[in-house]
């Protein structure tokens, strides 16, 4: 056997062994993963439906032969988890009615049509929880308002809290739930095809919710600036209220069309003790960002001339970058 053939076989064997080791280790990590049904361990906050780990299926009686099963393929949901656990938390879900899947293309069209869901007029199915009653550890009945085809009726789901833990793969805080319930479709104006198709609809839900990161807090004392494109109008200086309740300065600078689009520099937050200095500085020197070779430039308030960046303007540029990134402590002096 040639030498290069031996090397090729050895390399292939090494790759196979590495893949086998990875495949052998991954299931062990998943199998040994545990979750806790202790509601006190769940961090309070906003959780959103994991788009890859959920299912909504429902079935109806078909000529007494069987329960015909369908599913919904597109949905979003938000869970507001309170420190009080299931009793104090709430959930809201929105389902795309056009995502109904019966596994029969012709039937899909009929269910989406005017005789049933009428998705052209009522594209969404919505559920908003209103009350939770505990029936045992990590379980209870969830009551909420279900809206289908424009009709809103209360429905009740039997809910089980499957557990909480950081996901072993994504490291994100994750909650798992199972739910099931039933309701009369006639109450929502969906009585078509009865009695060939039964009236009672059985629903089953599996869902995982992932905790969303908290919104970043505004850095104390650091102005929050942004560029907004504007269409027409002269150079103007106006005062507006900021998100923090302090006066804020807005400077709009319009450049000749040949030199680039106009932009608006907005200073949304100015600490009271620095408001005078910042307003004077912004009115005196407008910051203009041009797409193209000019890059960062300065508009002179005296003559409205465009001047390229040089050493004397580096401090102004540094101020801009500091404000954009909301650094703390402030680097503007």
Automatic annotation (TrEMBL):
Signal peptide: 1-23
Residues of the Lipid/polyisoprenoid-binding YceI-like domain: 46-210
Keyword Nucleotide-binding: no
Entry keywords, A to Z: Signal
A Pfam family matched in the record: YceI
SUPFAM superfamilies registered for this protein in UniProt: YceI-like (SSF101874)
SMART domains in the cross-refs: YceI
The organism's place on the tree of life at top rank: Bacteria
InterPro entries: Lipid/polyisoprenoid-bd_YceI, TTHA0802/YceI-like_sf
Zinc-finger among keywords: no
Name by which UniProt lists this protein: YceI family protein
